[in-house]
UniProtKB/TrEMBL annotation:
Presence of keyword RNA-binding: yes
Pfam families documented for this protein: Ribonuclease_3
UniProt-recorded name of the protein: RNase III domain-containing protein
GO BP annotations, alphabetical order: rRNA processing; termination of RNA polymerase II transcription; U4 snRNA 3'-end processing
């Protein structure tokens, strides 16, 4: 009996050793690559997980996962833009980059649909409205705008970078993009929304943000890169405006030289209260002229991180109105020419 027990023990030990050996057997390169592919796909397919990664680690995680997935598919399958809608009435239509495709019909429908129209609660794993999509799209747009201005303006301080980013991502900018691409005509929203100016503005911005999220969710392999390239092209005119606002150029002085004179008043006033978002302050200043035949004439408006900067921007906008400034300057020149002529006559 003792021998049998000993034999039994030896057999059991051998079996355990064999199982342990199999368990510790190195995985093949193929199995590891498949695991990487699966984990990357899971990250890019899960909106909540992806948003959490974006918040904690920034866009680098998303870009790394995207590049890993690209190794498993042909590049030709990753870029399939669709043409811009031809029925849009906007004058800027022909200058817009092509609208990227949402590769999932369910997500595409949800992008333009208000939750109230659907009449059902959110179902995990299935988007039926733009309510959640716009939240994710907003996060993507914020990151892409930050990356762009960081690269484009390496000398700008943090405060000015924040202000420049706000120009790119604010509702007014995104809502205009939505109009340019005809998103407002595709929106499925309550009938009274288009009649409510502020709500309709935000709704168009929300739909644009949802569209961004839907592109990326429907194309985890290259959606992020396609959207970033598209947005960077859309933002070019805004970037040129920001570049034109060179620090150190005192447009107040230039404006004064053109239209100031004895008894003439140029006023810089707060047009609305200072707005504070987090640690960023924004001032709103307007410049007005009384004199040369004009009374409290509005010349321009500007915003800035302080009153000086906002006033300088208002003066810059005034100078850009060449017709009005030209008329005022002509009256000034004619006045002094007459004074000079009278002085010469009296001598």
């Amino acid at each position: 009996m003792g021998t049998k027990r000993k034999s039994s023990v030896v057999v059991d030990t051998s079996e355990r050793s064999s199982k342990k050996h199999k368990k510790n057997k190195p995985k093949s390169a193929e199995s590891r690559l498949k695991k990487i592919q699966k984990l990357s796909a899971e990250l890019l397919d899960d909106p909540e997980l992806l948003q959490d990664c974006l918040r904690k680690a920034g866009p680098d995680v998303t870009q790394a996962a995207t590049k890993l997935l690209k190794a498993f598919v042909p590049w030709e399958d990753t870029l399939r833009p669709i043409p811009i809608p031809t029925d849009s009435q906007t004058s800027t239509l022909q200058t817009l980059p092509e609208l990227p495709l949402i590769k999932d019909k369910t997500l595409e429908k949800a992008t333009f649909t208000h939750q109230g129209i659907v009449g059902e609660d959110h179902v995990p794993g299935r988007e039926v409205s733009y309510e959640r999509l716009e939240l994710l799209g907003d996060a993507y747009i914020e990151i892409m705008a930050t990356r762009l201005i960081w690269k484009r303006f390496p000398a700008l301080p943090a405060g000015r970078l924040s202000q420049a980013r706000e120009t790119l991502v604010k509702n007014e900018t995104l809502a205009q993009f939505a109009i340019d691409y005809g998103f407002d005509k595709r929106a499925i929203v309550p009938a009274d929304y288009p009649n409510q100016e502020r709500r309709w503005l935000k709704t168009k911005g929300d739909i644009f943000e949802a569209y961004v999220a839907a592109i990326i969710l429907s194309d985890p392999l290259s959606g992020y890169e396609r959207v970033e390239k598209w947005l960077w092209q859309l933002w070019q005119p805004k970037l040129e405006e920001i570049e034109a606002e060179r620090p150190g150029v005192m447009d107040k002085e230039r404006l004064a030289r053109k239209i100031m004179g004895k008894g003439i008043k140029i006023r810089y006033v707060d047009e609305k209260p200072m707005l504070q978002r987090g640690g960023l302050k924004t001032f709103y200043i307007g410049v007005y002229l009384t004199g040369w035949g004009w009374t409290d004439q509005h010349l321009g408006s500007g915003t800035g991180l302080n009153r000086v900067e906002a006033g300088n921007q208002a003066a810059r906008q005034a100078l850009a109105n060449k017709q009005l400034i030209g008329e005022i300057s002509a009256v000034k020149v004619a006045f002094y020419a007459k004074v000079k002529a009278e002085q010469a006559k009296n001598e």
